[in-house]
């Protein structure tokens, strides 16, 4: 396995052009696959935008099991890749070791804080964006029961769920049915189980279901559409996966995070530290396009925009589950 991984990394690195000596970006995806239609794919889109605008290629690696993380990260560091961006909190343990061993290289991690001077930690206020789609879900619901399907049962995903509950109940939902797909990384890429959970929630009365589950969410959106109900996407704009059946998507601008990390390194503006991106910073939002415009009335949009303005102004404070491992709604 080691030979295969190193061989793949070496082959991937060959695509870097010679003129990119000063900045040689690398991107490491989380479990679930590069084209998961969600978190990883948003990372890929940010890297592709950088490559298109600058002409500078990047190396990449799709991890398939946890044992590969430190090996892959260390190999990129040994090769002098700079900056090295990791998508997902699960990279933190490997990064803590490798960033210490390579203090002159620049690293960025999304969804986790690693306190090293050469590490940019990019985290998001997912609870704020989830609150907005919760408001929209409640207003679109006729049963006033809405659902939430999380991926792996970790505090980060409960942070999504709690924000969603807060927004939904503020807008009149009487019940929010919540389920997690599992407690292992396999939960990020199990659309079949996601669909089964969705069908169960619908049988319990939910008519709008929000998925924060990586590739598993594709199955959630499919099941909701097949049942004539509405789904809500996450991370990327997933409105087009089931046109006219996805109420909205909670946008988490992972693409912008990757793009900015690469570009900052290119422009010699890369700095370590914590970036915490919410509605005010443009890090999260909700998606409107031709695929869902017929589903969202002017009144619904006005209510969501008011909630957005109130959160930005500080008059509405959305509880962050990760602050105390509790959800008060």
From TrEMBL:
Signal peptide positions on this chain: 1-20
Pfam families referenced in this protein's UniProt entry, alphabetically: Bmp (PF02608)
Superkingdom, taxonomy of origin: Bacteria
GO terms under cellular component: plasma membrane
InterPro entries documented for this protein: BMP_lipoprotein, Peripla_BP_I, PnrA-like
Subcellular localization(s) per the UniProt record: Cell membrane
Domain ABC transporter substrate-binding protein PnrA-like as annotated: residue spans: 33-317
Keyword tags: Cell membrane, Lipoprotein, Membrane, Signal
Membrane protein topology class: Lipid-anchor
Sequence similarity: Belongs to the BMP lipoprotein family.
Name of the protein: Basic membrane protein A
Native source organism of the sequence: Aminobacter aganoensis
Lineage: Bacteria, Pseudomonadati, Pseudomonadota, Alphaproteobacteria, Hyphomicrobiales
């Amino acid at each position: 396995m080691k030979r295969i991984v190193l061989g793949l990394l070496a082959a991937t690195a060959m695509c870097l052009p010679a003129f990119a000596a000063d900045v040689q970006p690398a991107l490491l995806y989380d479990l679930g696959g590069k084209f998961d239609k969600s978190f990883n794919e948003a990372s890929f889109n940010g890297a592709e935008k950088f490559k298109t605008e600058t002409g500078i290629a990047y190396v990449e690696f799709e991890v398939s099991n946890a044992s590969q993380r430190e090996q892959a990260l260390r190999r990129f560091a040994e090769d002098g890749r700079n900056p090295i961006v990791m998508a997902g909190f699960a990279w933190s343990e490997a990064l803590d070791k490798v960033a210490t061993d390579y203090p002159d290289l620049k690293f960025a991690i999304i969804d986790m804080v690693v306190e090293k001077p050469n590490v940019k930690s990019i985290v998001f206020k997912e609870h704020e964006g989830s609150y907005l789609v919760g408001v929209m879900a409640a207003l679109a619901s006729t049963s006033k029961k809405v659902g939430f399907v999380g991926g792996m049962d970790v505090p980060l995903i409960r942070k999504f769920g709690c924000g969603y509950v807060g927004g939904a109940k503020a807008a009149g939902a009487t019940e929010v049915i919540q389920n997690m797909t599992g407690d292992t990384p396999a939960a990020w890429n199990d659309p079949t189980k996601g669909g089964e959970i969705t069908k169960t929630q619908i049988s319990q009365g939910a008519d709008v279901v929000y998925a924060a589950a990586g590739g598993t969410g594709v199955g959630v959106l499919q099941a909701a559409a097949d049942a004539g109900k509405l789904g809500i996407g996450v991370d990327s704009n997933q409105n087009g996966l089931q046109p006219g059946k996805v109420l909205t998507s909670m946008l988490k601008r992972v693409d912008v995070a990757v793009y900015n990390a690469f570009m900052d390194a290119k422009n010699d503006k890369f700095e370590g530290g914590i970036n915490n991106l919410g509605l005010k910073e443009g890090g999260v939002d909700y998606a409107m396009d031709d695929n869902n415009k017929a589903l969202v009335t002017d009144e619904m949009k006005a209510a969501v925009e008011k909630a957005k303005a109130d959160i930005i102004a500080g008059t509405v404070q959305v509880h962050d589950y990760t602050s105390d491992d509790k959800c008060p709604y």
